[in-house]
Specification:
- It is built from 12 helices and no strands.
- It is an all-alpha fold and 261 residues long.
- It has 3 domains: 89 residues, MazG-like (Helix Hairpins), CATH 1.10.287; 76 residues, MazG-like (Helix Hairpins, Orthogonal Bundle), CATH 1.10.287.1080; 46 residues.
- Helix 11 crosses helix 12.
- The longest helix is centred in the C-terminal third of the chain and has 26 residues.
- The chain is extended and about 65 Å long.
Length: 261
Amino acid sequence: MTDDLPQDLGTFDALVDIIARLRGPDGCPWDRKQTHASLREYLLQESYEALAALDEGASDKLCQELGDILLQIVLQAQIAREAGEFEVADVLRGINKKLIYRHPHVFGETKVSNAEEVAHNWEALKKAERAEGTSILAGVPKQMPALAYGQEIQRRVAEVGFDWKDIEGVVDKLVEEVREFQQAGSAERKAQEYGDVLFTLVNFARRQGIDSEAALREANERFFQRFTYMEDLCRRRGLTFASLSFDEQNALWEEAKRGVK
């Protein structure tokens, strides 16, 4: 059974061959039954696990998770090949052509002096690729997490000048949105105004060079670590967290903040 395995497992072709075999007549029943749609959740999950590895700064985990993402890509390409849609070579050809086209300062004669000019040229080239009348926001997937989506569409409109001149304008807008939230009379209106507050906070973060999605993800992780630290303290001290007063819980929280940075 192992005689026909790829000899060098460190190649891309080896992965393509293994996935093809898993999808073959004598392959894995689970792999054979998968479709583009059924694999959607796994692609999303593996992407989040790679993000977690990046946040942890764990290179060994990142190596593993990137492999899992690559598995999802090749599996999708194999399903497409079987359906006569496209080949994995088409995927590689497409991204290689895109990289060459969008880096004329490397593969052509365009001159740039910094990363900002590169980003500006990148957007200009993307605009040239869009069909006439297509919105600059059309290419942003609405399936993105809401904070990330909000930051990306604000970044794109800022590229064409739809942005505050300075950070004070964003702060004034935030104050205005908070006031409108406070004045909202119905639950539906409050929800709308709260969305506007979040949207403006995302804009503020963008202007400060902060990734809103990553910042909230890291805040969630800090809270998780500190709360579980409090739970551990309670276990070691024979306490029941829910029975503590609010002041006692807050004292534990301050202790957790000192114990978990």
